[in-house]
User: What shape does this take?
Amino acid sequence: AMAGFNLGGSAVMSALHRTENPFHPGRFQTFSRVVLRLDYHTDRKTSALRWILPLMLVMAVVLLAPSLDSGLGHLSFGLPSAGLLNLVVLQAGYQSQVPPTPYLTFLDQLYAYSYAVAVAVFLLFVWGGNLRARAADGQAAATLARVNGLCTVVQGSALVGYGVILLGNALR
Assistant: This one.
């Protein structure tokens, strides 16, 4: 048994394995084999609390960062950066507890998307900070409104993206 996982079922199946003969290219050899399939699962509540809740909290901070007053620019730059570092640590922790798979898991998809969102928010701050710094005195209010509008679009789009990932995995 694997720590933290419950054996949900098992099956023993016979199968044929076909491979090219290394001594006669173009000819194939067929071998019989036995396949043991073990189905492990975790408790959904435990998994959500252990692996998804911390990710949600980090991303909530990253996504709320654009809502900060623009006078707190130094803090705004720090939040997405800290979020990225936390994502790396959280993902490493989760991957050390879960056996590797040859495909992207639901958590892998969430982390990959979260990295993209955190980088997008950081780039948004860089762009917005530079735009506000270069704005003429008379254009400061219009520039701030433009930056704030894009921040709202990025925040909403990120949430929609998470919804797409959740829906896509729920329909499988």
